[in-house]
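Lab notes, practical 5.
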Amino acid sequence: MYIPRHFQLEDHEAIAAVLRDHSFGTLVTTFDGEPQATHLPFVFDPDRGQYGTLVSHMARANPQWQQFARYGPEGGLALAIFQGPHSYISPTWYGDTEPAVPTWNYIAVHAYGRPLILDDPSAVRALLDQLVDTNEAGLDPQWSLSSQSDEYVERMMRAIVAFEIPLERLEAKAKLSQNKSDEMRLGAADALEAQGWPDSAEIARLMRTPPASS
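Output from the prediction step:
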């Protein structure tokens, strides 16, 4: 990912928050020069490995998982893309301080690693419990795998492929008008907040206190 120095996000807690709060990512792999992408729910475990570990699953009918064997020690890295909040920025919001052009502010994280298929049924069940429990948290009532019959759960497990990705590299970008003066950046944040859209409000909040660049 192209990351100008003033937009580079290196705060590990901020990166983990993106992976937690915007956990529906896009897994990109290549096979014989052709890219393939699948949109998947992930759970990020920051405590497993140097950069953390992603866990997910996909339909067994999806041929992408059959490529995973090629991502061994001698293979390349798969890429999981996570899009955080984002919003259009009009140059009129900066005021008349200096010339400006339209742009887009956003948060994004690229996570790289080699997918490993989980074959052990107990490991697959644990992964599914983790995914369900994470996404059902705060709901009332809550659904759980344990509320279903063993026969149904086993049948559903046979229809998926569970996997984990020990991460080898993380790239994160927080483009929040840090290259503008405080006056211009805060003026744009005020205009964004007035839009009344959730992503605009979140980007405005982040623009008021952008993370320090490297």
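Observations recorded by the TA: The chain has five helices and eight strands. The two ends are 16 Å apart (CA to CA).
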